[in-house]
UniProtKB/TrEMBL annotation:
Native organism: Nocardia colli
Record pathway: Polyol metabolism; glycerol degradation via glycerol kinase pathway; sn-glycerol 3-phosphate from glycerol: step 1/1
Domain Carbohydrate kinase FGGY N-terminal intervals: 6-252
Ligand binding (sn-glycerol 3-phosphate): 13, 83-84, 135, 245
GO CC list: cytosol
Gene of this entry: glpK
Keyword ATP-binding: yes
Protein name (record): Glycerol kinase
Length: 507
């Protein structure tokens, strides 16, 4: 019998990867291409959606060649993607209207402030589960409609289409201008500020509030569903799943029970807790979102707490400050001391995300004395990630009424063993890293394979999860409480540093 595989496309912020998995969730082949980041103005971040599509066109056949297999051996394709990044393209030509606006982009800051003052703003979180913020897709889509001549009229006529990256790829894979399917999944739709979390449909009140024409929006599908069959790149492969990257990581970590929590540590940190079938509205600064939806089943909801700066703080002290020559050296340097020496670093480089949501915050280093060495600074760098994680986990426990009993982790920073120990210490729960670190790609593969019967059920996926490393808390409880209090005092000092510019009278 011919062996079959599942294919995952992981369309990330800096690169796109194609990974093949076998039935035991083992990685068979991987192909990857980076794409360029564009920074035309301060706070603006853009990508060329056509470049990303061309990369997919190259890496999918490459992965199959490397594995020595053909398209008929692929049981299903699943897609995971960077969320909130916004693409608008011409339905007739397939060309993007302009470069995609990335989730990190803050050009819609003034728009968001205007929206906050409008009648109905207080209902946005209740309907969508999200706060008004530049982080989500609706404000940047509205910015495009306001700033490109004639675009609104074309959108209302259905001549241009909107999508996040999975929508753009599905449309192209299923035919593009020749009958491409315009679809999104509930997890990505839940990050736009336009979907009603209870009905799982585009919400008329939200569309009216943001001024978004319904004609340009994709049809919302469950996370596991029939998304058509590829007609381009490698024809004949069923597309059976799509999830936002962090939702895919939740699925790949097999966090299928209420209270199970994961964190992906990369440039930033993304914590997500499964809250089951219950839609939990946050009162502690978190995002309510869809965890995943399997076929026609009721959705599984989640609480999410994004942290803006984790790994990028290590990059900053390496590239801008020269504290270390390479990222792994931060652990070596931090191990030269026993503690932070009273020094704390709050990396609010462009504000703080969850649970504070303070765009006026700016980073600081506090507690400096003549005693402080490079080792203490390195230790404070690692502790900044740990304490930010603690803030979010505390908020999740308070919102959900559940208790995170462990934290499953993935991402590049999990190779830092000292950091993982510090996270366990400040959370007072075990931290667990799986053997398969490709949890985003694996989650997309799991969802696609589940949809077509390649894997029988969720329990079968759980059986694939293997523990590679575990860290248990060792910190004295009194010391933990004292350090957390110091961290919170440091965070308070970051607030209010960015103030509105003063303009001369009459300007």
């Amino acid at each position: 019998m011919t062996q079959r595989f599942v294919l995952a496309i992981d369309q990330g912020t800096t690169s796109t990867r194609c990974i093949l998995f076998d039935q035991r969730a083992r990685l068979v082949a991987v192909a990857q291409r980076e794409h360029q980041q564009h920074y035309p103005r301060p706070g603006w971040v853009e990508q060329d959606a056509m470049e990303i599509w061309r990369n997919v066109d190259r890496i999918v056949p490459q992965a199959l060649r490397d594995a020595g297999i053909t398209a008929d051996q692929i049981a299903a394709l699943g897609i995971a993607n960077q969320r909130e990044t916004t693409v608008v393209w011409d339905r007739r030509t397939g060309a993007p209207i302009r470069r995609a606006i990335v989730w990190q982009d803050t050009r819609s800051e003034d728009l968001v402030r205007e929206f906050e003052e409008r009648p109905g703003a207080q209902h946005i979180r209740e309907l969508s589960g999200l706060p008004l913020a530049t982080y989500f897709a609706a404000p940047r889509l509205r910015w495009l409609l306001d700033n490109i001549a004639g675009l609104r009229d074309r959108a209302e006529r259905g001549e241009v289409l909107f999508g996040t990256m999975e929508t753009w790829l599905i449309w192209n894979l299923t035919g593009g201008v020749d009958g491409g399917l315009h679809l999104t999944d509930v997890t990505n739709a839940s990050r736009t500020l336009l979907m009603n979390l209870a009905t799982l449909e585009w919400d008329a009140e939200l569309l009216s509030f943001f001024g978004i024409p319904a004609a340009m929006l994709p049809r919302i599908q469950p996370s596991t569903a029939s998304y058509g069959t590829t007609r381009r790149v490698v024809p004949g492969i069923p597309i059976a799943a799509a999830l936002g990257d962090q939702h895919a990581a939740l699925f790949g970590q097999t966090c299928f029970a209420r209270g199970e929590t994961k964190c992906t540590y990369g440039t930033g940190g993304f914590l997500m807790m499964n809250t089951g079938r219950e839609l939990v509205q946050s009162s502690h600064g978190l995002l309510t979102t869809i965890g995943y939806q399997i076929g026609d089943e009721k959705p599984v909801y989640a609480l999410e707490g994004p942290i803006a700066v984790t790994g990028s703080l290590v990059q900053w002290v390496r590239d801008n400050i020269g504290l270390v020559a390479s990222a792994p050296e931060i652990e070596t340097l931090a191990r030269t001391v026993q503690d932070n020496g009273g020094c704390y670093i709050v990396p609010a480089f462009s504000g703080l995300y969850a649970p504070h949501w303070r765009s006026d915050a700016r980073g600081l280093i506090v507690g400096l004395t003549s005693y402080i060495t490079k080792g203490h600074l390195a230790r404070a760098v690692l502790e900044a990630t740990a304490w930010q994680t603690r803030e979010v986990v505390d908020a999740m426990n308070a919102d959900s009424g559940l208790q995170a009993r462990a934290l499953r982790v993935d991402g590049g920073m999990t190779s830092d063993n000292l950091l993982m120990q510090i996270v366990a210490d400040v959370l007072d729960v075990p931290v667990m890293r799986p053997f398969n670190a490709e949890t985003v790609s694996l989650g997309a593969a799991y969802a696609a394979g589940l949809a077509v019967g390649y894997w029988p059920d969720l329990e079968g996926l759980r059986n694939n999860w293997r523990l590679a490393a575990q860290w248990r808390p060792q910190m004295d409880p009194v010391h933990r409480a004292d350090e957390y209090e110091n961290w919170q005092r440091a965070v308070q000092l970051t607030f209010g540093w960015k103030r509105s510019k003063r303009h001369p009278a009459g300007a």
